[in-house]
């Protein structure tokens, strides 16, 4: 009819004005309707109609979703005047000697603002505890059946002097599919200090002792994270592990000091690439071949709380993989680092994309890390920086060989801009971790070194 013909002409006019000639020809061929300039009384009919609709929609008042988006943006605009790491740590640059093997994981175990206490895992199946500005080796553990791949240290609540534990727990995940809990024993504090725990610098012995051992995965356990400490407790009551066997395992206990037990198993579409916690009761999981983030609640029987679509258009196309996750200190935002040189900052529990950060160099099978700064004003991402390398060949046949310098890309969240590229290592940054109480980073690299930044 004439009305449909008019609508086709409006679309054809738009395609012609935008020089989308292939689409124009296809529509003209399929409908049998053609358009020549002057067939319609005015130009830009479709574009004007869309603009009019958008203006009218806005004029009728914002929806609840619009109001939430506006509130989220206003919160981001308040993230000003923050601090990020810009160079070597003035309190100590880290261990001076080579680790002797590739560094696979690092984690701060510090419990005060100024304490420098780092756990370092290396590919030769060793775990070392470094302390103080000189980064002296305080303790070592090497009873692993396969190389450690991931580390996490249990944090302490502010009330730890009221509810002390006997030791600090370290979660280690390995290439052989194991998850181990080590017990970090600190020295006794001086009687006059009034402290419940010994700190770096106190006299006495430090030790890393074996605790619980789990062998529930069939392939490499690439990630593991403790839940935040619940109110009224002295240690985490849950942790989660993710593996290349396409499964995540959730472990829990009823009180601090009790043993953990396997509470549930989550089956994913592909290998589990990363995990984090947005509360002491809810973890977030990401996997290959999956366009969603999965929020799981810990209870007697863990259950999925919500799925969040990572595609802005809401479709189910899988065009990238989330390789690392991080939650902001106030647990309001989740950063998802992908294999397409893109970091998506989302509002926790929702699909609302607050920011998209571009500028870090990340390959399909890199093992990147991502973290918020302590004030949530910045996001750190491990990246690779092309550098002039050695020359290969002899005489006139010599040719430069590309080398990579491990670096951290640093983004300002408010403006979604890259503000600094911080070269850190001669080779790729395999892992990094932000201090729980101050703006200090520890990085580990395939150049077999560990460094501190502030």
Principal-axes shape call = elongated
Distance between the termini: 70 Å
Structure annotation, total helices:
4
**Sheet bearing the most strands, described?**
4 strands, antiparallel
Q: Uncertain spans, ≥5 residues at pLDDT below 50?
A: none
Q: How much helix, percentage-wise, in residues?
A: 10-25%
Q: How much strand?
A: 35-45%
What's the Cα radius of gyration? 26 Å
The total count of strands amounts to 29
Order of the strands making up the biggest sheet: 1-2-3-4
Q: What would the average pLDDT be, to the nearest integer?
A: 88
- Helices and strands: which structural class? mainly beta
Please supply descriptive tags for the structure shown above:
454 residues, 4 helices, 39% strand, four-stranded antiparallel β-sheet, mainly beta, elongated
């Amino acid at each position: 009819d004439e009305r449909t013909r008019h609508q086709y002409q409006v679309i054809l006019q738009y395609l012609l004005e935008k020089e989308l000639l292939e689409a124009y020809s296809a529509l003209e061929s399929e409908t049998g309707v053609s358009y020549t300039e002057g067939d319609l009384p005015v130009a830009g009919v479709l574009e004007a109609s869309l603009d009019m609709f958008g203006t009218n929609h806005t004029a009728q008042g914002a929806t609840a979703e619009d109001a939430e988006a506006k509130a989220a943006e206003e919160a981001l605009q308040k993230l000003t005047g923050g601090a990020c790491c810009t160079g070597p740590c003035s309190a100590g640059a880290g261990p001076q000697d080579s680790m002797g093997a590739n560094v696979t994981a690092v984690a701060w175990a510090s419990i005060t603002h100024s304490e420098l206490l780092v756990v370092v895992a290396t590919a030769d199946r060793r775990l070392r505890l470094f302390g103080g500005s000189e980064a002296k080796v305080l303790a070592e553990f090497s009873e692993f059946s396969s190389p450690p791949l991931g580390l996490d240290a249990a944090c302490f609540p502010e009330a730890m002097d009221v509810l002390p534990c006997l030791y600090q727990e370290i979660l280690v995940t390995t290439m052989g599919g194991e998850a181990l809990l080590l017990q970090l024993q600190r020295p006794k504090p001086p009687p006059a200090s009034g402290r419940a725990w010994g700190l770096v610098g106190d006299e006495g012995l430090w030790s890393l002792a074996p605790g619980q051992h789990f062998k529930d995965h069939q392939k490499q356990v690439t990630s593991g994270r403790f839940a935040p400490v619940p109110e009224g407790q002295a240690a985490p009551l849950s942790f989660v592990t993710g593996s290349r066997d396409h499964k995540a395992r959730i472990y829990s206990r009823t009180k601090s000091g009790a043993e953990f037990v396997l509470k549930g198993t989550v089956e994913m579409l592909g290998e589990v690439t990363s995990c984090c916690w947005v509360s002491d009761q809810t973890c977030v999981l990401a996997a290959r071949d999956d366009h969603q983030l999965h929020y799981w609640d810990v209870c007697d029987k863990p259950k999925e709380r919500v799925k969040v679509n990572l595609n802005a258009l809401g479709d189910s196309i899988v065009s990238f993989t989330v390789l690392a996750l991080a939650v902001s200190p106030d647990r309001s935002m989740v950063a998802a680092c992908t294999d397409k040189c893109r970091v998506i900052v989302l509002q926790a529990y929702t699909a609302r994309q607050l920011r998209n950060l571009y500028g870090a160099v990340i390959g399909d099978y890199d093992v990147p890390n991502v973290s918020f700064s302590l004030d949530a004003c910045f996001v750190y991402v491990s990246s690779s920086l092309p550098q002039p390398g050695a020359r290969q060949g002899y005489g006139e046949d010599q040719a430069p060989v590309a080398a990579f310098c491990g670096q951290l890309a640093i983004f300002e969240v408010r403006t979604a801009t890259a503000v600094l590229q911080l070269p850190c290592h001669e080779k790729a940054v395999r892992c990094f971790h932000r201090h729980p109480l101050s703006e200090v980073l520890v990085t580990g690299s395939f150049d077999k070194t560990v460094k501190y930044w502030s």
